[in-house]
Structures are given as structure tokens and as C-alpha cells.
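ERR on first pass: missing label on line 2. Operator R.T. fixed the label and resubmitted. Corrected input:
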Amino acid sequence: AQKITQTQPGMFVQEKEAVTLDCTYDTSDQSYGLFWYKQPSSGEMIFLIYQGSYDEQNATEGRYSLNFQKARKSANLVISASQLGDSAMYFCAMREGQAGSYIPTFGRGTSLIVHP
Amino acid sequence: DTGVSQNPRHKITKRGQNVTFRCDPISEHNRLYWYRQTLGQGPEFLTYFQNEAQLEKSRLLSDRFSAERPKGSFSTLEIQRTEQGDSAMYLCASSSGEGVTRTDTQYFGPGTRLTVL
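pass 2 clean. output:
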């Protein structure tokens, strides 16, 4: 079974509007971390936001926020006030366990296109 | 620039040749990771170092692949007898290793795009 599932291969949003990118995960651990990365066409993976499984508040970083629903095992990324420069691939990733498991698992990504 | 750097950015080689990539992590980051990414996929873990020790290798890392981090700073990834299926983006990431694993954020380099003809 996929540990990280991103069901939206592609998303379109109009500039200045908000968009939600979906991510569901599968783990039996109680302790895990969830990450979102942005990958522009240049190829570099840019860290956006982190959510820990024990964090009570949803993570926010500027225009990025994470809608964390633990019971549903979902960690959706919300981008507010989209900008043309937000056009990129977006990857959700998970790291499990408090020690020993250093291997993060990435989803297949969602391509976001922001149009004027 | 204090980010992760990778060289070369692009490599074109003929099948059967050996290639070597270099990764320079963020200074003082003690963890270093190599990933492979093919078109339409997320990064796939290859191997991981804590300082100079290689602690984890994926089964994706065949015996044609070898990685080193001799002094716990930069790392090299060598592919021997390249095959067309090795064509991919090879990404390097580093993390500080502080705190618990689940919070240990990785920072990625720009990648090396390998094309095997």
C-alpha cells in the first residue's frame, strides 16, 4: 500500500485565489512527521512546511498552511492568495517513528498551475 | 550561498560508462541523503549517511551504485556500467540531525540530471 497518496495529478487555480492540495498517508506509528515540498521546473526541492503528529495546532508558514486531520490521516496543503510563481510540482512526504527510521516517503506529487 | 550544492548539474553519458556525482551539504549538517527521481514520480530514497557512516541503503541501490562520505562532509555517488534505466534526476539532501527524527527537515540540492544514451 502507498504510504503517501496524492490523488490530484494536476490542479489549476486563478491568481490570488486559494487552492488546496490533497495528501493522505498511511502509518501505524503514533509518532510521525509530515512535510510539503515545492519543486519548480528548475528541479530543486524547496521545503515549505512541517506538521508533527503530536502538534495540536495546524502548521502555518506565511501563505502556506497545513490542514491536518489526524483521524482521517490527511495533511492537505492550503496555499492562500496564489501567485504565478507558485506554479510547480508539490510533494507530500512523511517520516515515521521517533528513532531509527530516517527514510522519508514521498508521494507522486501534484502539478499546480496558477494562471492570471 | 550556504545551501546544498550538487555537481555536475547535467551529465550525458553512453551506456556502460561510469559516472560520479558530488554533493556538498549545508555545513554542519551531519545527515546526508541521496534520492533518485524519475519523471512523474516523487523522490525515491537511495542511501543515507550520518557523518561518514552509511547507515541505510535502499534495495534500489544495486551493486553498480556506490556512495561515500569519507570525511563526513561532501559525498559522492558513483554509478558503474551505466544503463539507460539509470537516466533520472539524482537529488542530494542534508539535515541537521538535531531533535527527533520526525522533525528533522531535509534541505535539497538542485539535483544532477543524468541521461544515459
